[in-house]
Amino acid sequence: MAGIPYFTIVPCCPDLGEAITPYFNIPDAVANYEGIWVYNGPTAVVNGILFTSGFCYDIEYQGTTLAFYPQTPTPATYTDAEKQCTFPGCAECNSLAPNAFEVYNCCDSANVITLNLDAEFTTDGVYSYDGLTPFTIGDFIFEPGSCYSISFVGNSVTTAGPDFKDFTYEGPDCVNSPNCPSCSVTEQYLAFTSCCDENTILYFRPNSLSSYTNGVYEYLGAPVNGLENTCYSLTLYDVGIAPINDIAEYAALPEAPAFIENVTFDTKSNTNTNCADYILECPSCKKKCYTLYNCDGTYFNTTANMSAYVGTFVSVSNPSGPIAGTWFVIPNNGNCNNAVEDITVSPTPPAPCDCRCFEITGQISSLLYINCDGEVIKDATQTKFCSLVYPFVTGTPGQYQVIEGLDCVDGECPTICYKLTNCETGEIINTLTDLSSYYNLNQVVTLLNNDGCWQIDINDPEECECPINVTVLTYFSDCPTCLGITAYKLTGCDQTLPIIYTTSDLSLYVGKTIEFNCGCYTVELINYQPPTDIPVVPDYSFDNCSICTSIIYKLIDCLNPNNVIYTTTDLSGYSGAIIKIENCDSCFTITETREPGNIENIAVVEQYRTCDACTENYVCVCSRIKNYDTVEHVYDYIDCNSVERQITLQPGESSGKLCLFVWLTTYTTDNIEYFGECSETVKFQWDCPKNYPIRKVKPGYKTPVCSTDKYEKITCKASEILYKQVMTLRYGISNCCPEEDDKWLIKKELIDLQALVDPNYVCKPSSCGCPVPDCGCTASKTCNS
User: Fold this and answer.
1) What is the rounded CA–CA span in Å between residue 577 and residue 588?
2) Could you tell me which of 415, 412, 350 has the C-alpha nearest to residue 387?
């Protein structure tokens, strides 16, 4: 059996990269493909090497093999350059052009433009344009909010596009980008049905430079996106007809090859779509093809009849002898490149491959693997899975990583105990939460509800004590990077304001709202590197957005400037007025302020032109203050003639009773008493009311509140219970009937409390720091309890 030639390829210019795996296949190559060659084909990245026209590559023949290796672009387009990288036909290494990308709007795939974009576009896919204004290049427009497919097409000099910072990655293609806007449906797509297999239907977007009609055509071009060199029945359908139901699915279709008669297509009919009418004019259909996969991921195709072995492991031989390895057989309905025929199967089946756990990080284009049940799975969205063979992955080199783990258990990746160690404190916690993606990359993480930064290790299952569930918030390359970043994210209360990032110290404002540059922003602490850093000095600080975005009014007591109220209640109709508010006798002036005081809701009950007009109805009260501090204090107050006065009290000294409107100065160590309203005996002379002490229990055999019989009954019951408690504690004599003890003790306490109520005291309730203190005026009765 003849093998497949394979080669090593090294670019003459180091900037063109180096091979990720050592070997390559060159389609239709022979052993004499060896030496220095100038490449003149289309730009492509294969196995870590950039192939671009005009540059030279050192190619060395290595022999033949049954295994498949990464293929260089087809067809082979190398020219002998006389064995030296210095050959004049080789492009100079420093002449490599900048990165070029093909771009089209997901809603207008026919309008494609090639641009030089920033090197940060390392992932092909769909990006939304976030610029503030449209960006126009000729007739191509980047509209804010629209989505664009961006893919690397090599290195060439063309027009520069927008900055990378104006884009946000949305998904791998226009179909799988849910945040992108929907598109209007006005396009048609192509359906190529294979004349060899009516179940093989390929869908394409029309090439923008070509026109197509329904009919039967033989494809002559290079195999691409499933198209092979055979005949197809071609039909055009409007987008919206299944299976291409909307413009997003249409945009995700590959573009059909350009229609060039006798170059890419040979027309058999441009009116009739029935393949059966052109059997003699079309190439004969291919033999059934099978692909054999080894446990380590190598594979080869064969046209030998393997139908009896599909979905099983086999040992195979060729005329030269056994082919090493255990091989899994699946049918191949795609390209059957380099297929071999002379394969025989050993009658003794081998032991199957171990089903292992694999994990993929980064961006990939396609994924094929064989699950533990022998089913072939093609799903590029999988990130962790079990496979009998090393998975087959395509994507941009360097942008993804395949990590092999432990053997699977019952078709599932095994549960691993992870040990998390705090970078600062050394605290250790165990978890069964899957942290493999962070562990495999040796990353340090932060966790929800667990402060600090945490290193990840795998713990011995026997030492996995008290595992807890954890949620990863962010990740870093190491502990110093994780611990060293303190930054803040400012989100505007008004959604039109841009998000601001800063490293300015806003630790005092975390969780609050600040006013900055005439805008209100909530402050959030972040521990990752901010994308931008704008210096921020807060103008004011508030508890929330509602207060920050409101007009704040400051109400100052006409007589006591220390009595201040802040409110967001709309007082615009009281500009310049003096007001009284509900549940308060004070008079207040009104000013607008940005001071973030304690906000209260108020209701205006009266308004006046001046403070004098408002305060003339103030109540003159009798009050006494005592200094319980250890130092001397000075007290200011407004007397009942509206005159501000001052007294000085030594430690422990009392002011005596004074008639006044309000105390202007008080201290937390003071004791203030009020004795009712003062009376004006002579004009401008005020006297305190006469108050005499009242005995709570009057002389004679009378009891407070209750009747004498009931008072004696409650008191006697309580006394007997207390006596029995003493006997129990002193002599151990138990009470045989304790069921109602608590009831009678409570009754006794209630009547004793009621005895303290002065039935002759007159109480006037008030609030908000006004002259008369707040108190309750209703004495509850207890005799009927």
Assistant:
1) 9
2) 412
- Both tokens of 81, joined, read 């350059």
DSSP assignment of 589-606:
EEEEE-----B----EEE
342 Cβ contact list (under 8 Å, min separation 6): 1, 304, 318, 319
Query: How, if at all, do strands 159-160 and 108-116 pair?
Result: parallel
Q: How many CB atoms lie within 10 A of CB 273?
A: 16
- Residue ranges per structural domain of the chain: 4-95, 99-171, 188-278, 289-345, 356-407, 418-467, 487-548, 552-615, 621-687, 707-785
Total-model pTM: 0.30
Alpha carbons within 13 A on the beta-carbon side of 280: 1
pLDDT digits (tens, 9 = 90+) for 741-780: 888 888 888 888 877 776 665 555 444 544 444 444 444 4
Q: DSSP per residue over 126-195, as a string?
A: EEEE--SS-EEETTEEE-TT-EEEEEEEEE---EE---GGGEEEEESSSTT-TTSPP-----EEEEEEES
Q: What is the 3-state secondary structure (H, E, C) of 413-455?
A: CCCCCEEEEECCCCCEEEECCCCHHHHCCCCEEEECCEEEEEE
Dist. CA 378–CA 291, nearest whole Å: 15
Q: Using one digit for the tens of pLDDT, what is the confidence trace for 44-66? A: 777 778 888 788 888 888 888 87
Cα–Cα dist 53/525, whole Å: 50
pLDDT tens per residue, range 537-588:
999 999 899 889 999 999 998 878 888 999 989 988 888 888 988 888 788 9
User: Which pLDDT tens digit goes with each residue over 684-737?
Assistant: 888 998 865 544 444 444 566 676 777 778 888 888 888 888 877 777 666 666
Tokens found for residue 231? 């005949």
Other Cβ atoms within 10 Å of 160 Cβ, number:
12
| E strand or H helix at 525 | strand 519-526
Query: In 10 A of CB 689, how many CB atoms?
Result: 14
- Containing 492, the helix (H) or strand (E) segment is strand 487-492
Q: Which two tokens stand for residue 520?
A: 């209100």
Give the 3-state DSSP-derived string for 42-58, with helices as H, strands as E and coil as C: CCEEECCEEECCCCEEE
Could you give the CA distance from residue 523 to residue 489 in angstroms, rounded to a whole number?
6
Yes or no: say if 214 and 236 are a contact pair by the CB < 8 Å rule.
yes
Q: What is the pLDDT of residues 589-616, one digit of tens each?
A: 999 998 877 888 899 988 888 887 787 7
